[in-house]
Amino acid sequence: MFKHNLLIIYRNFKRFKSTFFINLLGLSTGMACALLIYLWVTDELSMDKFHEKDSQLYQVYMHHEENGEIRSAPHVPALLADALEVEIPEVITAVEDTDADEFGEGFSLSVGEDKMKARGKFSGAEYFQLFSFPFLKGNPETALSDKRGIVLTESLAKKLFGSTDVIGESLAWQILKFKGQAKVAAVIADLTDNTTESFEFVLPFTVFIDDLMGPERNHWGNYIALTQVQLVEGSDVAAVNNKVGSIIKEKVPNTNVEPFFKQYSSRYLQGNFENGQEVGGRINYVRLFAIIAIFVLAIACINFMNLSTARASRRLKEIGVKKTMGASRKHLVFQHLGESISLTLISLGVAYLLVFVLLPQFNAITAKQLSLDLTVDLVLATIMITLFTGLLAGSYPALYLSGFKPVSILKGKFTTSTGELWTRKGLVVFQFVISIILLVSVWVVYKQIEYVQDKNLGYDRHYVIKFPIEGTVADRLEPFINQLKQVPGVKHASATTHSIVKSGASTTGVTWQGKNPDSNILFEQARAYYGLIETLGIEMKEGRSFSEKFGAEEEKIIFNEAAIKVMGLEDPIGKTVTMWGKEKQIIGVVKDFHFSSLHEEVSPMLFHFDKSFMLSVFVKMQAGRPAEVIQGIQSLYKEFNPGFTLNYEFLDTNYQAQYQAEQRVSLLSRYFAGIAIIISCLGLFGLAAFTAERRQKEIGIRKILGAGGFQIVRLLSADFTKIVLIAIVIALPISYWAAQSWLQGFAYSIEPSWYYFAGAGAAALGIAWITISFQTIKSLRINPADTLKDE
């Protein structure tokens, strides 16, 4: 019987070629989408999960309460790590840390005369005991215990020394004006793609405090560090957070900050907070694409169901004869399920071929290095997808076809039931509901990205470049910037510690007359050089910016509007505040500008003058001649920094990089929406072809009686038009809710217009009409005499 069923399946595929190829194309495309999304989702879920102590590793975050609202961020006082180890019994180890992104390409390493750029960070002595980065040379327990030690990745060690056997070798490092000597204490394997870390070397955290920041800046009001902890296995994190919440309040009177622990490996996917509550993050995109994969597969399966049941009349005699000969319904169900699973297996082979071909392009879009390795997980996932698709696609046709009564079939009294028609139409409605929701989503995401790109941020990011301060430039910043301003095409030049496009260092160490003693405001803080406001095109609301005309400005300070508002100051110019124990006079108030992403509202910010510690130079160039101006800047840079290469970035590019996730979602959504529409139209094409075929005699008679082409077209397309219109009515409210839910993740967003939804509905209807028109035009061309002659 098995051999017989295989033969029947082969003959049916061969007999109904158009149906076979429509189903094959739909199922293989749907399965290819599902496999690609599976690879992406699996990679996303694996981020930071490889550490042996993953279940015990937590990142320390801070809740900052301001005016009834709570902001949550990972930067904490560097003193917190030691306090946690001493005061919280559940904390086994707490490690101070910095983020490699804070320094970017600012580090240079040198062996002899050769200098090299590299991404580095500072971490506490027990960092490599907490995190499972594979060691090639050296001991993880002692790698960072010596202040002069340094840990290199394998690739960096080979670039510097040509080998990984480099324990004890010396090198020099420099960032800004800070220099030091170090000996290689360990070499670790290159970081893999499933970690959120991006460093190439690690220096001891004591270097960061003693040499860069200075011990005087290491206090409870300065949030300059990250901290990770290892908890006792099985600890109740909620109970531990209750203890941790008051640890800073016991040391700083009237503070409004509360530390809390968040699992380290969950930060990547669930790192967004709203008013102190976790509100997701990238996990929303993981869920979104997992749902899309299921829906695209479901749409392909619906095509199979509809075409199989629509063409049931072609197989009635086969079913009737088999039932008459004693075949049970169970046997027929297994036969038809076998047919759907056989088609699914063929589609799987095509799907794997599609994935193999498309994976490089998919990796380029997602910025990942996914591969189609036949791992146990991938094989199991493939089996699950195949069985799910085969059973879902074949279940309804199998139960439907096996339920016919042989007597009715053999007497020719079979008629299509109303329930069958409504089921088939309902499935088509479902297909187009999903397609329309995807169309609306694509449009909303696209318009939001467009809004982000075009929004007035309160500063001018165009034709502005930035580059790190290093080498002799750090020691001769003033003459360098003065000469930089003389380069043809340079309009303004200045320096700061802030990236301008995302949040950085912050402080609560600001007091003023009339300040509420129970209030502890968190200020974003940026050290600024002369002319920074002018270089960035930030508009002054009142007062002035830092200027050489007024000499030393170390005792001056500038706030933004949001800061003045929360401080409750009226006529702030000339008033005095105290910052870190030193009095500073307010000389200006800048209008609010977006110094972080549009996901966040503008928060209090201050600029204070401090030319002794700067991270980056910003240069505003004249429009239309950036290549020429940059060449002039490079020449000047070589004069000041022989042996160094100018590594510059455009501020506009930095800004756009914040929205890479949204841009990738936008692009992927377009592809998946297009695929969903195509698969839906394939099914509609097949049903239209079948309907036109069954109504050929009716069409012939109508043409003989004088019906015109338009009337025939309206006749054949009326039912399908109603189906798509019903789908539009159902889909638009759902798509509006989905759009609003996604836009809530932005503090500043578009308001979806009615034409987004009307356009998506009209597009779906237009595509459906075009699909149906191929069959109706084909039917109109058939000679009525050929359809009415009696065989």
Automatic annotation (TrEMBL):
It is a multi-pass membrane protein. Residues 21-244 form the MacB-like periplasmic core domain. GO terms for cellular component: plasma membrane. It comes from the Bacteria. Residues 291-402, 672-784 form the ABC3 transporter permease C-terminal domain. The chain crosses the membrane at residues 20-41, 285-307, 332-358, 378-401, 427-446, 671-692, 712-734, 754-772. InterPro entries: ABC3_permease_C, MacB_PCD, Macrolide_Exporter_MacB. GO terms for molecular function: transmembrane transporter activity. PROSITE patterns: PROKAR_LIPOPROTEIN (PS51257). Keywords: Cell membrane, Membrane, Transmembrane, Transmembrane helix. The keyword Lipid metabolism does not apply. It is found in: Cell membrane. This is FtsX-like permease family protein.
